[in-house]
Amino acid sequence: MSALLLATPVLADGVIGFNVDALAHNFWALTVDGLTYGAIYALVATGYTLVYGVLRLINFAHSEVFMFGMFGQYATLMLLGFAPSGNAYSEGTLLTIVYLGIAMLGGMIVSGGTAVGLERVAYRPLRKRGAPSLAFLITAIGASFVLQEFVHFILPKLTNNELGGANAQQPIVLVVPSVQFTFLGASVTNIELIIVAAALILTFATNQFIVATKFGRGIRAVAQDPVTATLMGVSRERIIMLTFLIGGVLAGAAALLYTLRVPNGIIYSGGFILGIKAFTAAVLGGIGNLRGALLGGLLLGVMELYGQALFGTEWRDVVAFVLLILVLMFRPTGILGESLGRARA
Amino acid sequence: MPLLELRDVTVAYGRIEAVRGISLTVDPGELVTLIGANGAGKTTTMRAISGIRPLARGSIWFDGRDITRMKAHDRVLAGIVQAPEGRGVFPGMTVLENLDMGAYGRKFDSKAEHDDALGRVFALFPRLDERKKQAGGTLSGGEQQMLAIGRALMARPRLLLLDEPSMGLAPQMIQQIFRTISEINAAGTTVLLVEQNAQQALSRSDRAYILETGEVSTSGPGKELLADPAVKRAYLGVA
After folding, report:
1. Looking at beta carbons, which residues of chain B come within 8 Å of A344?
2. What is the per-residue pLDDT across B174-188, written as a single tens digit (0 to 9) for each?
3. Is B126 buried (19+), middle (13-18) or exposed (0-12) by CB count in 10 A?
4. Which domains does chain B have, with CATH numbers?
C-alpha cells in the first residue's frame, strides 16, 4: 500500500474534469503527454519482453532495475558537481545535452549492472538446479523487495545520507519545460521532445541489434529453440546474460527520461507502479515481442491519459490495470500476439 | 586413433537408463550408422555426444581428447555438429539466417569466405538458394531437412551427426537426402548417422551399430549386417 501512495508522482499532473468534454477538448494535449509516458513504458517493457522471450520468465524485479537506474543517473549528476537545490541549472543547450548524456550513461551502467547481477545471484542458481517456474517468480518478487530495501535502508548508510532513505531525492533540474511548438492546439515541450526522440532512437537501435547482428540472431535462436541454439554453438548462459544486460541498459535510459518528466520521482519505491505499467504494456503489445513492447507502451500511455480525462486523475492507474486484466482475459497473447522467437526480420 | 570414441557411456533420465554402457568408435572419414527401434537410445546417444545430456557414467573422446565435461556449445567449435531429430529449423528465421546460425561460432576472415561457405551449401541443395529469403517455418519437410544439414555444414564439422534425416519424408526425397549424405561423406566429412530406415542406411555405411534397449547388440560393416538374417528379420521387414 505504501508503495502505491509513494509512487503518486506518476499521477501528479493534470486537473481535468469528469466528462467527455474534457477528453474532447484536451485530446491532443493528452495524446502528447500520453506518448511521452508511453515512450518510457516502452523502453522498460522491452526489458520484460526480452527476458520473457529467452527464459519464459516475468522478471518482476525489473521495476527495481529501473529504480536503480534513477539513482544511478542522479548519483552521476552529483559526481558531475550538480547539487539538489531549489533552482534549475541553465548550462546552455549543448552542455545540457552532454550532461544528460553522461547521466543517462550512468543510469544505464547501474541498471545494466543490477540486471546482470540479479540474473547471476538470483536466477542462475535456480536454473542450475532446474527449479520449477514458480520458484523463479517468487524469487523475482523477493529480489524486488531486497533491492527496494537496499535503497531504503542501506544506501543512505553507504552514502552519508546523500542517497536513498525513506524520502524522494531532492530534484536536480537541468531542463525546465518550455513549449517548443504547438500541434493541433497541444503544446509540445522540450522535455517531451527529448523523451520521445531518445526512446524511439533506443527502441530502433535495439530492434536493429536483434534483427541484424549475430548476437541478436543468437537471442532469437534461444527464444525459438534453446536446444537447437546450443547445437549451433550458442552459449545459452551468455545469451541470457546479454538479454538481461540489454533490458537493464534500456531501463537505465528510461530512468533518466522519467526523471526529466517526474523530477521528484526518485525514491526506493518509485519503480513499482511504473514497472507494473511497463509489464502491462509488454502484455498489451504481446509479451516476447519487441515491436509489441513499443506499441503496447505508447498505447497504454495515451489510453491511461484518456481514461484520466474521462474519469478523473485518481483513476489513471485503475485504467491501466483494468486494461491489463481485460487483455489477460480476452487476448492473453496481446495485440501483435507473436513471440520474440517468431518475430520476423 | 578414432575421431570419436564412446567408452561405456550410460545416460539416465531420472532413474531410467536410456543408454546403458555403450561403447563405439567412429574413425576419420567413416560413415557410421546407429540403427534400432524406437526407444532404443539412438537420439539419447546423439544428445550425449553433442553434450546436451550429461552422462551418468563413462566418457566421450574426440580426436584423442576427453570431452565428457566439455560444454555443448564448445563442442560445436571443436567440430562436432549435429542436425537434430525433427530438424530444429528456426521457424521465424529466413533460410539465410538459419544457415548463418550454423556458422554462429565460426569466424570468417572475409565476406568472400562466408559467401564461399554458403555457395557450397547451395551447390549441394540448390532448392535452398531459391528459397533463401523465405522463413524456415514455411519450408516443406524435405526442404527443412536440407536446411538442417546445410546449416550443420556451415559450421565446417569434423564430425557430422545426423539424427533421423529421413524421418517423415517422401520416398523420393529420402533417396535424395541419402545420396547427399554419401556425397558429404565422400568429400571427407566423417558422419555418424541415426536411422530407422535400415535398408538405405546400412547399404551406404562403412560400419553400423545396432542398439537394443540402450545397449549395442550387434556391430559390423554395413553390408554384412544387411545380409545378417537376424538383422533382416528385426529391421528390414524380411521374414
Report:
1. 92, 135
2. 999 999 999 999 999
3. exposed
4. 4-235 (3.40.50.300)
